[in-house]
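Purpose: get a first structural picture of the assembly so the mutagenesis plan has something to point at.
Setup: two entries, given in the order below. No constraints added.
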Amino acid sequence: MTRWIPFVLLLPFLTAACGDSPTSPDDTATTTAAVSPTVFEGTLDQSGSKFYSFTISQSGSITAYLASLTLVGRREALAVPVRLGVGVPKGEGCGVTQFVDTSPALVTQLTMTLGTGIYCIDISDIGALPGAAVFSIRFVHS
Amino acid sequence: MLLVSFCTISCGDESATTAPTSVTSPTTVTWTTHVGTNGSASRSFVTSQAGSVTVVLQDAAVALGIGVGVPGANGSGCRAAVSVTAAPNDAPQLTTAVEEGTYCVLVFDVGGIVDPIPFTLQLVYP
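Result (structure tokens, whole complex):
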């Protein structure tokens, strides 16, 4: 019996040692908050274009996609390409510096690294629109 | 040896309480409601990761338009990115890739509805 005494005396220390390890905070752990996209909606006329200006206050990347394109008054998705671009405001328009010709999809279609400044996102008909169309663009800056 | 055994058991128990929450994906939703003449019905859903969305129109008296898209900027309605006209079937009629985010599924009359009809649609998303 007496030979167990040293083990009993050690138990409080042993318990503390085991308890501290798995519950200690992890200083390197980080969480990433989901960023809500900016929505740019409007009506695009045949041979027309529309743009939306925005300010970047911290350098990073922008991702964008054409989330919807439907003829005015219709619900069916319009699977024709239009030009989706990003650039800087120029005169009364948007001086596009990078673009993609694309039909609607729900994944990133355009990615661009931007420094601080004022930029614009632009959508324009490249000759495929059969009539005026309602569009919805989603973009995220991170 | 006794000490080693005690420590192993104790530490193992505490580690179990800090295990990461598991993510169940994909999610399957069966949706039944009505759509009227020239009408539409939509509901939104949130994907937890990138993947594919599939839509199956399981039951309807007539062919209907089905689409997947994004909610309108004011939060109402559903703007389609992709759509098809579908007759009831058990096979997926619409599949599209998505990223993590908020989307919507849309069902609409394509001219075949005289009086409001019920439909059942199955939606699977990541």
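The interface with chain B takes residues 7, 10-11, 14-15, 17-19, 21-23, 34, 37, 39, 41, 66-70, 75-77, 79, 104-108, 134, 136, 138 of chain A (CB under 8 Å).
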